[in-house]
């Protein structure tokens, strides 16, 4: 598996290292949006720390100010592991704050403010809509090189998820995609019901990035790496680039951005599901 994918990967460059991670009483409210935006602000704080507040929730402190969401809520996270990761995002900012690259903070804001006012059932239904147009389920009929590439690289992932969850998904060259059995939808629905609201926020974000429930669950279940999931989601684009060439800087930027967002979403899912606290000292110089 991944032999031809690996050749593509080698041709278009090595994977980028995704996440560099390093981590009182006034409130700070920043104008960070819920989606990535190209805004920056001069760094105004020296130290980033975490503290445990009411109900055992963890807070992020910028000097003596507590971080708040765009909706005005105190930014609290359910466990120490996620607090460390969010604090690291703020600590690794240099002279200016690149809000558009702070994906974990954005996901926390989304989970806390819930700007679309949806419940868990609505989030699961929205995520499973992607099954009907899943990236790995739609197959081309030509050119034959791409047909073979999709079969060789996507079929093993489909077989894995069908065996893993005892479901039927299949693939189709119809623009409508495969006809997903209701039993398959029900199985995935019940599986996603086991996720908490925070984890669903992260999972839906990953599914939106990859346009694929199959690849997202493969990555969350650690069957696929971030790099593999992203390359598989871009298989047709990579094939076309191999045939016709590309604008190198634009291709690389899009690839690295997608990897960063996907990695952040997967990390958010795992950390928001973390039940135990992390016992280690933060941000030692």
From TrEMBL:
Belongs to the ATP12 family. Pfam families: ATP12 (PF07542). Keywords: Chaperone, Membrane, Mitochondrion, Mitochondrion inner membrane, Transit peptide. PANTHER family: ATP SYNTHASE MITOCHONDRIAL F1 COMPLEX ASSEMBLY FACTOR 2, ATP SYNTHASE MITOCHONDRIAL F1 COMPLEX ASSEMBLY FACTOR 2/ATP12 PROTEIN, MITOCHONDRIAL PRECURSOR. Plays a role in the assembly of the F1 component of the mitochondrial ATP synthase (ATPase). InterPro entries: ATP12_ATP_synth-F1-assembly, ATP12_ATP_synth-F1-assembly_N, ATP12_ortho_dom_sf. Its main location: mitochondrion. GO terms for cellular component: mitochondrial inner membrane. One of its GO terms (biological process) is mitochondrial proton-transporting ATP synthase complex assembly. It is found in: Mitochondrion inner membrane. It is a peripheral membrane protein. The keyword rRNA-binding does not apply. Interacts with ATP5F1B; involved in the assembly of the F1 component of the mitochondrial ATP synthase (ATPase). Interacts with FMC1. This is ATP synthase mitochondrial F1 complex assembly factor 2.
